[in-house]
Amino acid sequence: MADKDKGPRRVTSFDVARVAGVSRAAVSRAFTPDASVSPKTREKVHQAAKELGYRVNYLARSLTNKRSDLVGVVAAGLDNPFRTLQIEHLARALISRNFRPILLPTSKEADTSAVIGQLLHYAVSGVIVTSDAPPTEICEQCAADGVPIVLINKGDDIPFVDRIVSDDRTAGHLAADHLIDSGAGRLAVIAAPSVSYTARRRGDAFLGRCRQRGVEVQLLTIAVNDYPSGYEIASKLSPMEIDGVFCANDYTACGVVDRLMSSRRREDGHAIRVIGHDDIPQASWAAYELTTIRQPCDIQAEQTIDLLISRMAEPDMTARVEFTPVSLIKRRTA
Predict the structure, then answer these.
(1) Domains in the chain: how many in total?
(2) Banded pLDDT at 107 (limits 50, 70, 90)
(3) How far is CA 178 from the centre of its chain?
């Protein structure tokens, strides 16, 4: 009776080895990517595991190996559709490389030590930190613990920590050139440079290009690069004073477009050309048809994981920076 109360016994790797007629070490190799095991043995082990209902306990394995197959993804600003798209591509790319992503949502106000603790308790193989997340303490602590880290779109220069940065200089130039070549001559950039590395870089590149071409330009500063901030500041835009706007991201640009369309007659809304950045799914919606600068998340994810894997292999390499290419996507707003 006591055995029944305990429920069915958990299937172990020993059971799989017995049914498959192989050693327990062979079972372990069969479930380890790139391990040395014949295709025939791997097939026998997987078939036995399927029949018995066996699943690998990756967390238990990590206690033995000191590292799991988990990769921490630290992200903030999850209300931004681009962040969702970025994380989806990172997760898919990690899984395709036999890693398992673990998402840790955070914010600039979050307790960074708590995030660090969670990552290190899981014995992660690496950490990816996206823009808008508080990275410095996380990176320094993880680097000290020998955990490889890659930052995406962040300006922090930390020894042995690699970075992937979108080509913001080209983005600012593309936006300025397109607006000017389309006939706009009184331009503005809307950004929150004090809180965002990418917004600051894109804004500076846009301002510099406009001045280089002798076109009137101004910086309209917002507190956060989000929809509400874009919607609010758009109430101050007048076609008599500004006829072209570059927003630091699409999330902000959507707020700008909605306000321009709701506060004036629809035809007046088109008097101000608007360009965003990121090419989020909403940018192609009929309500926006937003001209934007595409930041390809698929390419960015592959670049990130390539750096992460190479850092795992050679942890003492000098810190590296790679740039993600960008391109102009032309739609109705500019």
Answers:
(1) 3
(2) confident
(3) 27
